Amino acid sequence: DADVTQTPRNRITKTGKRIMLECSQTKGHDRMYWYRQDPGLGLRLIYYSFDVKDINKGEISDGYSVSRQAQAKFSLSLESAIPNQTALYFCATSDARFYRGEQFFGPGTRLTVL
Amino acid sequence: DQQVKQNSPSLSVQEGRISILNCDYTNSMFDYFLWYKKYPAEGPTFLISISSIKDKNEDGRFTVFLNKSAKHLSLHIVPSQPGDSAVYFCAAPSGGGADGLTFGKGTHLIIQP
Questions:
Q1: A58 vs B contacts (CB less than 8 Å)
Q2: Residues of chain B contacting A107 with CB distance shorter than 8 Å
Q3: How much is the pLDDT for B78?
Q4: Which of A89, B33, B51, B62 has its CA 20 to 30 A from that of B100?
Q5: Which residues, including other chains, have CB under 8 Å from residue A46's CB and lie 6 or more apart?
Q6: d(Cα A76, Cα A2) in Å, to the nearest integer?
């Protein structure tokens, strides 16, 4: 089984709808992240969390919110989806015990907002 | 303003030859760099990293070189194999109190048989 899973893998929705993307991990890591990737661009950080109930904004947090109710789960919500939020979304985890440790990524969720 | 730049969107290399992927950065405070590899329909996977106190790090066929004065790093793959065909991202810790990574736009490496 994959260490970092994301659901759904693909989602098509309409402008104005509320959408939640889920991320679960079995690595036991305390740090979790959400990134988005647009065509021809690198990944950009949306939000990150160091522990349960800890939430921090990343580079592009506007229009998004997150929830970290358990160490293994980090969900990303789009309160009112808009077309320019069409992108590939990745969840990642890292182990805080390792300074500058690598991040482990999920397989991604492809979101299309019509 | 892009802090991590990969100026070559794609690179084609013959199987068995050396692949050299380049990355430039603007933030001299970056103290650590990572390379990630990404296949279609998968998340990025960590490949190799280098600390700013070093100028070279090697792991099997993969070597990363860091030139701090030029703010430049490169990833060398020798010999290149068909399975190396993927998108390669250069990344650095975002810093400024923020956790997370700052990524370049990626280079699509194509290994020709």
A1: 94, 98, 100
A2: 41-43
A3: 98
A4: B62
A5: A34, A35, A36, A58, A59, A60, A61, A64, A66, A76, A89
A6: 20
